[in-house]
Amino acid sequence: MRQPMTPDATGTVDIYEGRDPVGIAAYSIPEASDILKIPASTIRYWVSGAPRRTRAGRRYEPVIRAADVEANRLSFQNLVELHVLRAIRRQHQVDLPSVRRAIAYLRRRFGAAHPLLAHCLFAEPGGIVVEAEEGLVDASAEGQLVIPEVVDKLLARVDAPGGAPTRLYPYVTTKLEDGLRPVWVDPRIEFGRPCLVGTGIRTDAIADQFLAGDTPDDLAADYERSTAEILGVIRYELGRRHAA
């Protein structure tokens, strides 16, 4: 029989029972789709592969390994991987065969369980670049050296101190815009659900207040944030609901 959780000396209950919340399978595919604004069918293909086979007789294998393969449930690490992969595919126009080659190279060279997160990654049209001892190499081309000026930082919307992702700032809309980051996802805050950045106030609660009649200016005053941030939260949350 499972023992009940008890507070530690500080009175805090460890709801994760010593496990790192970033790796816990806390999200279904629809929930990940909702948070990231990536179609569920796309996420399912990236994490589950496809039964059809190539001309060479090979099955389309998953690009990202789900935290819980059998239940198709994803961790916060998987969310960040999906965020990175979406940017690689849409912003940098890298095709999936190149992504698969890069991931295979990173796993082989660095032994990375999460290749898209394990090293400082860049992307350029047609390829994925990683920092290595010898400089920047093209992981999509089996480690060819590249010139730093041709690549862009990829993880601008992820906090990753020491290389390990801890927070994700989802795009407000599906247009992958830069700039304002009013929403964050932190697996240690509100069980990894989207919140107003810098707080534990869930975006769905703010949107509910707006729909109940509070103006963005009123909410900005209540939460001591800028009206632009509150409007960003509302756009993000209402976009999620419209997509659902």
Q: What can you see in these coordinates?
A:
The protein is α+β, with helices and mostly antiparallel strands. The chain contains eight helices and eleven strands. The protein has helices spanning 29-36, 40-48, 76-90, 96-110, 115-118, 203-211, 216-223, 227-243; strands spanning 50-53, 59-60, 121-124, 127-132, 135-138, 144-145, 152-153, 158-159, 167-168, 183-184, 195-196. The strands form four sheets. It has a five-stranded antiparallel beta sheet with strand order 6-5-4-3-7, covered by helices on one side. The two termini are 39 Å apart.
Q: What strand order characterises the main sheet?
A: 6-5-4-3-7
Kindly provide the radius of gyration, computed on alpha-carbon positions and rounded to a whole number of angstroms. 20 Å
The rounded distance between the terminal residues' Cα atoms is: 39 Å
Question: So, CATH architecture of the domain at 169-244?
Answer: Orthogonal Bundle
Number of strands: 11
Helix content: 25-40%
Q: Give unreliable regions as ranges.
A: 1-13, 145-153
Write the CATH homologous superfamily of the domain at 169-244: Winged helix-like DNA-binding domain superfamily/Winged helix DNA-binding domain
CATH class annotation of the domain at 169-244: Mainly Alpha
Order of helices and strands: HHEEHHHEEEEEEEEEHHH
* Global morphology: elongated
Which fold does the CATH topology of the domain at 169-244 refer to?
Arc Repressor Mutant, subunit A
Compute the number of helices.
8
For the sheet with most strands, the description reads:
5 strands, antiparallel
Strand fraction equals: 5-15%
